[in-house]
Write a structure and sequence with these properties.
The complex is a heterotrimer of chains A (259), B (420) and C (169). Chain A has helices spanning 2-25, 45-57, 83-91, 123-129, 148-156, 204-219, 223-258, and strands at 94-97, 106-109, 173-174, 182-183. Chain A has 259 residues and is mostly helical. Residues 402-407 and 415-420 of chain B have low confidence and may be disordered. Classes of the chains: A mainly alpha (259), B mainly alpha (420), C alpha+beta (169).
Chain lengths: 259, 420, 169
Amino acid sequence: MKNLYKLFSIITIIIVSNSYSFAAEKVEYLKTDWSFKGLFGKFDRASLQRGYQVYTEVCASCHSMKYLSYRNLAEKGGPEFSEVQAKAIAASFDVTDGPNSDGEMFTRPGKLSDKFVMPYENVKAAQAANGGAYPPDMSVLVKARGGGVDYIYSLLQGYEEAPSNVSLDDGVYYNKYMYGNKIRMAAPLSEGLVEYGDGTSATVEQMSKDITTFLMWSAEPHLEARHQMGFKAIVYLIILTTLVYFSMKKIWSRVKSEV
Amino acid sequence: MSDHDYRPKSKVGQWFNDRLPLLTLANHLTDYPTPKNLNYWWTFGGILTFCLITQIITGLTLAMHYIAHADMAFESVEHIMRDVNYGWLIRYIHANGASMFFLAVYIHIFRSLFYGSYKSPREIIWIIGIIIYLLMMAAAFMGYVLPWGQMSFWGATVITNLFSAIPLVGEGIVTWLWGGYSVDNPTLTRFFTLHYLIPFLILGLVILHIWALHVPGNNNPVGIDIKKPSKDTVPFHPYIVIKDGFALLMFMIVFAFFVFYAPNILGHADNYIEANPMVTPAHIVPEWYLLPFYAILRSVPDKLLGVVAMLSAILILAVLPWLDTSKIRSAVFRPLYKQFYWILVADVLILGYMGAMPAEGLYLLIARVATAYYFLHFLVILPVLGFKEKTLPIPLSITEPVLGGSPNLAAARSKESKIE
Amino acid sequence: MSEKKTKRRDFLFTATTAVGAVGAAAAVWPMVDQMNPDASVKALASTEVDVSSLKPGNTITVLWRGKPVFIRRRTKEEIEEARSVKMEDLIHPEKDEDRAKNPEWLVMLGVCTHLGCVPLNDKGDYKGWFCPCHGSHYDTSGRIRKGPAPLNMEVPKYEFVNANTIKIG
């Protein structure tokens, strides 16, 4: 047993010291309090709605969100726009449909069942319009980045003057949190870039938080249902485990007494 | 299964049972005499059965929505996550279920190593178990390819390229595996087909595994042969059923935590980026349960030998019953083996950790030492130990130590009752 | 073992089994429900059809929720015939006035109520539709008149968005 403890403490020391040395190389992400973390975490509806506004007014000109539909905006657990609002949002976009009976494609106002309209026809077109860099689809972006929401939140606020020893090409910017510090996207947010309907002041920090919350929802639209069901499931399992435990004690008491 | 006579009470039951002795089988399974000193490490067989059935059921339901096509696979997974009723739940159970399956199988294997369950007369059970483990790795690997994310694609590329190490025919085999000149749609569809097939092969082997188990009966923590049925045994139902059930529920609580509160923690972020044959992710790692073997592969500087080393690391287990020369099963009575056992556990954990780190500098050195030790354990230490080791006195029956046997076992027993 | 003890144990076992059974049932539901129409399918509820070019006596077939919908611009004779039928003669009595709010336009699911085949236009003993699978005859209002089908062809929810456009669903 002693050996075992020795070994495990050695392993722990190796692992801990290593992760420390690794952490030291990394930049510490900016922190904020996310309402959707924790056992009962839920989205902040107002923040999601503001986040959607930031997406359409700022990000959507380059970044697609191809797995989302306009109906999602009115669904439970999301921004929860009213159905009328969501319909109006959908109708404000021109959707290509068809072919009609003449075999031609045509545009019509969007419907709830339509997917989010994409800024470019395809990846090649997106690359061509952005100097060869493809602005990634944002549907599952926070799940596709190691640092998750903290990374996105920090990245949006991480634009700085490049240090003198770093030379940047045209169309490349310096970002403290980007892997390798070089990013092809210019700082997308600036103070007062959007005008929030609810009077929230549109600081870069606030917009970063709102859009990141929105992206978290878009990546995990059933997060609230998952948290709720998880709590119920675990409480249920604990109750059943307790009952089974006492049943087991009862059953095994027969054997013990016979020995 | 003719170890006892059974005759159904009802006429209908008798009529049926004479033609197909299912009732005899059911009776055998419920009455099956089990050593009563089995500890909780023995509950993982039942837990693994649960894992297999869960994976099959969730897998079948996912297959109803998944589209095995390079252009649509990623999208269909997102469709499952977003639109299908409870699709997110089913997918997260399936994805995390793979990890839970491996967690349980590793505990199951290391239990067997500690208590010498692979030794005569249980060699066939053990070998079937190793085949199941190999098939599990194949199923898990192909399953990981199906979402067609970056890790799926590059994992598939790297693993299939292992075959190119084979002299002369290697390249041909890889092309054959791919159905093209790179991992692409034909690869995906065949992986889906095989991923669908393998669980049923595993199910069949599990039945053989249990059948082979029921011939000699369970090993037990003391590791001695017991008479059955006797006062050393209890009928499987209700004693073992309820105990397995309790352990399973504890396991399910951990499982539920992952599914509901950390569903992506065991996965890799890059797999939420759609497969792109033009860009390799900066840091390719397999799923955690394959990391020790990945470390072995990388620690050998030669392509062919690396692959050979990795395969040998698994296949060496199949001949373990003959490498371990000790007649004593349980490590409880083998003071030296017990120490080497824990060193092996640590060695495998270190290998796993090194598998996740970049293969350079100190990491590579540690991985090499750990790899060497892994083979040393099985090829040198175990065979020699059987001859050199001075073992402790063994009790005559499992009830004896309670009345006053070796101090070691008494300690083991008291610890066990604490867990209960 | 005393009787009291037995009872308490029985209660414990019963409670454990019951709680376990509830959980098992709850776990089965997601596996069943996943086969129901998903959110994206439910969202495709309505289709709009331009009927401006349809002449009297003609039928167009459009797809709605994966099923054919017949839109027929009926002639005066057809309307007259549909409206003059006595209720007693019908297998499934429904007034034509209820089936076609605007008498000129008949909109219904082109699915035979027997076993789901698509009936043929302008066929059968009642000048309406005829199902080739098992010989059901429908009249000019899509009502079952002869054959194994039990019900009239179903009229879906629809409305005229404007004079030329019908919105189904």
